[in-house]
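User: I've been trying to design a sequence by hand for this structure and keep getting stuck. Would you show me what you'd pick, starting by listing the structure so we're on the same page?

Assistant: Good idea, let's start from the same input. This is the structure you sent:
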């Protein structure tokens, strides 16, 4: 017995060390890329820095980029925008907490004493995804006491499009629900002590109002249909009452605190609006892809009809709603963070039930079948362009190696970009350029505020003349009418970006190179 106890302790220690090393390597490597960051990364860096400084959750980048989206500029060509009178953000910086109630950012912010904002957010996100994968495997091990099926199931979760894409995406607090939502399912399903359930529920509510909504459904529905241990009436009433409180909190925050355009238009509110959605290009096709990608995990949950109720409920918003398709096939986005932990939890329970009474060879065969199925689905999504290719998947590891060897990384590219522009100047850029220059200059989304800007930081090909026969005015010509030169002051060849100044600015053909 003592030998077995020592073996279990050693195994747990080995798993923890492997998990820690994996998180450190991936986080350091991913943060070193830098040039894959977009506007959202810049927003949350400013938000957490603002929270750390005791100024609230404000971001000037959020004000600029959300104004660009809210006014519909994102769907209009630059040629047309440059001929319109564009309206800048009415308030800058803007409070992110009134867009989504990300109170958990304030709890994380003291870690800025030890990390840069960029590295902190990448690390937190990596821990969330790694913890989610780890707990998926541990769930199967808890139910079956079999290591090989547990490892295979955890690996299948790792190579799924949601995890494989999401861990490469930009930081969003919503992604933390992968691990928090899974833990909430765990403590409710196995009937843990009430204080644990309350503590996890508080963290879920602090994440944001959407997490509180899904957490409320977990707490209300699981005690009624889907728990392993028989809850006593006191526990059941406590969990359901706590769930009702989370649902009420989500509703009150949405009605009294949040000012978010998406809540008004994301879900259809009538039969007519459903008919309209069905006519949108890609809506039905993306919905089918969404179901196929999640079919294996959902199928495993279907082993017991009680286990599939909650997954279907939490998947419904992604299936029915529409924000352009990312909610269904945008695997790099955060839109898949809310249903997936619940689906995987019940898939793990179903998977365990499927193999626990079978011979070892059949256990391995069934586990391998699940892994191969998920792997092939991810390969399919890479093939159709919904997931990045293998070169992107290994890029964090390559960057970590570059850091260790002292070779150039994305940090050097970002430093070169910053060196191109005088500090404090007013620059217009697209999202990639905004992320490179954040906190060094004042920024807006090109071409908003072009009459006030000092510089443009854009792709070098963007201002090229239109091909012969094009009916649209050339962007370069329109920019010159706004007083800017279309001859670059400086260039950043590594990313194909150029800095353009006013026509009165001294023109230089200097090229900025990454040493």
């Amino acid at each position: 017995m003592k030998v077995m106890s020592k073996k279990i302790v050693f195994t747990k220690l080995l798993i923890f060390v492997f998990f820690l090393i994996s998180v450190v390597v991936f986080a350091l490597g991913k943060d070193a890329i830098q040039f894959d960051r977009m506007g959202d990364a810049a927003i949350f860096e400013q938000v957490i820095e603002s929270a750390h400084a005791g100024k609230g959750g404000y971001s000037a980048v959020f004000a600029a980029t959300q104004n660009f989206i809210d006014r519909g500029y994102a769907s209009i060509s630059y040629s047309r925008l440059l001929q319109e009178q564009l309206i800048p953000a009415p308030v800058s910086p803007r409070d992110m907490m009134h867009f989504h109630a990300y109170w958990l950012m304030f709890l994380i912010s003291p870690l800025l004493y030890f990390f840069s904002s960029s590295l902190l957010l990448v690390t937190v996100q990596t821990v969330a995804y790694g913890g989610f994968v780890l707990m998926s495997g541990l769930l199967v091990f808890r139910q079956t006491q079999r290591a090989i099926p547990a490892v295979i199931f955890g690996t299948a979760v790792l190579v799924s499009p949601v995890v494989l894409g999401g861990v490469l995406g930009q930081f969003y607090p919503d992604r933390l629900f992968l691990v928090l939502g899974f833990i909430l399912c765990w403590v409710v399903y196995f009937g843990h002590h009430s204080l644990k359930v309350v503590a996890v529920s508080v963290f879920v509510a602090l994440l944001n109002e959407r997490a509180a909504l899904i957490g409320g459904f977990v707490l209300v529905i699981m005690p009624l249909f889907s728990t392993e241990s028989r809850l006593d009436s006191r526990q059941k009433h406590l969990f359901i009452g706590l769930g009702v409180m989370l649902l009420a909190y989500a509703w009150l925050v949405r009605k009294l605190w949040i000012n978010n355009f998406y809540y008004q238009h994301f879900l259809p509110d009538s039969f007519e609006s459903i008919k309209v959605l069905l006519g949108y290009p890609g809506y039905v096709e993306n919905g089918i892809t969404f179901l196929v990608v999640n079919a294996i995990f959902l199928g495993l949950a279907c082993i017991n009809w009680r286990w599939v109720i909650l997954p279907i409920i939490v998947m419904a918003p992604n299936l029915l709603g529409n924000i352009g398709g990312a909610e269904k096939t945008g695997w790099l986005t955060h839109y898949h963070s809310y249903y997936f932990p619940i689906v995987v939890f019940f898939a793990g329970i179903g998977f365990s039930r499927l193999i626990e009474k079978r011979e070892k060879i059949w256990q391995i065969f069934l586990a391998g079948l699940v892994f191969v199925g998920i792997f092939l689905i991810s390969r399919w999504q890479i093939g159709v362009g919904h997931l990045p290719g293998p070169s992107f998947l290994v890029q964090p590891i390559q960057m970590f190696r570059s850091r260790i060897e002292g070779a150039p990384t994305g940090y050097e590219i970002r430093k070169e970009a910053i060196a191109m522009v005088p500090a404090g100047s007013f620059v217009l850029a697209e999202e990639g350029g905004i992320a490179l220059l954040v906190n060094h200059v004042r920024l807006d989304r090109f071409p908003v505020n072009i009459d006030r800007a000092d510089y443009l930081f854009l792709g070098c090909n963007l201002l090229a003349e239109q091909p012969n026969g094009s009916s649209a005015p050339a962007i370069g010509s329109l920019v010159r009418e706004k007083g800017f030169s279309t001859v670059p002051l400086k260039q950043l060849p590594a990313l194909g970006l150029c800095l353009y100044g006013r026509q009165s600015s001294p023109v230089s053909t200097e090229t900025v190179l990454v040493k």
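That's my pick for every position. To get oriented when you compare it with your attempt: Residues 410-501 form one domain. Residues 506-515 have pLDDT under 50 and may be disordered.
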